[in-house]
Amino acid sequence: xxxxxxxxxxxxxxxxxxxxxxxxxxxxxxxxxxxxxxxxxxxxxxxxxxxxxxxxxxxxxxxxxxxxxxxxxxxxxxxxxxxxxxxxxxxxxxxxxxxxxxxxxxxxxxxxxxxxxxxxxxxxxxxxxxxxxxxxxxxxxxxxxxxxxxxxxxxxxxxxxxxxxxxxxxxxxxxxxxxxxxxxxxxxxxxxxxxxxxxxxxxxxxxxxxxxxxxxxxxxxxxxxxxxxxxxxxxxxxxxxxxxxxxxxxxxxxxxxxxxxxxxxxxxxxxxxxxxxxxxxxxxxxxxxxxxxxxxxxxxxxxxxxxxxxxxxxxxxxxxxxxxxxxxxxxxxxxxxxxxxxxxxxxxxxxxxxxxxxxxxxxxxxxxxxxxxxxxxxxxxxxxxxxxxxxxxxxxx
Length: 397
Fold this sequence. Notes:
Layout lengths: L1 E6 L2 H26 L11 H14 L1 H4 L3 H20 L15 E5 L11 E3 L4 E6 L3 E6 L9 E6 L5 E5 L14 E6 L5 E3 L4 E2 L8 H10 L5 H35 L2 E5 L3 H4 L6 E2 L7 E2 L4 H12 L2 H11 L4 E4 L24 E3 L6 E3 H10 L25
Parallel strand pairs: 8-11, 11-14
Antiparallel strand pairs: 1-5, 1-7, 2-6, 3-4, 4-5, 6-7, 8-9, 9-10, 12-13, 15-16
């Protein structure tokens, strides 16, 4: 995607919001038909059947017919593609769209005009315009050249900002051809530690976030004060997200250009940040207690704010075929000098001192060197990569 900031007029914004509502309504209606299907009750309605039903509904309901047919039909096409991806096993099951969270619609190109010139025009050095059906030309910030595409998507985020994203697959970044290999260790105190000795830290969130969250929690639901507090918080979170995304883009681009082989930890971030399951109450039968702590919540928040997943995803997109994932098991406990594995060697978050050879190094750098070498050890009894010297368990023969 190549995204640009959109600046509609108040009249255009009203129509764009109407299109978002229409696309969400059509998506949810088609989702209800597909989700309620049961085997033995006929054929599941596909895109062609739902498209014919949409034509009949537009003729029967004037409020639906007043909207853009292209926008509503593309919502059904997106839903059909989402279900195809689900049955293919590449994506999750499609869900319902919610107002205030899923605000957007897609516009496809006119047959015979597959490039961006059919809907985009440049006004001057900093401004361009995109043509939206039944809305006209809407101005957007020309921050870089607009690529050739077949469709674009208009979205509204929670902070009230409009964007237009042109669907295009970006070009891969070629490697330098030097054969250099780098290992990257991802952490909380240090976001990225490279085997070359470099460290990169994701930008910290705004200091006013906690204060704005507290103010939002104290506001009365449905009041104007709560809406204002929600909008202020959304704007701060959007700026934090933009800074984190900008950092991930620049870091991944720089690394993809400098190294031919890039090795990172194969982390399951979703499982690492999952809330613990509640435990049964010892005093009340059938009741459950919340199984969590503030430290665990703080760790989850720090992991998500470090941008691990975003960085790895963008790195794989830009250096496709050159990114290798290494099993992270015990890479922080392995000595990069002698290969000895001992949890006691990790003296602190930043200090590593091998209990066998006395080698000392920064803990994150030591783990990054192990990752660069492809050295990872598994649990006892499993396959091992590289030399392993580990003390026997207590009581073992």
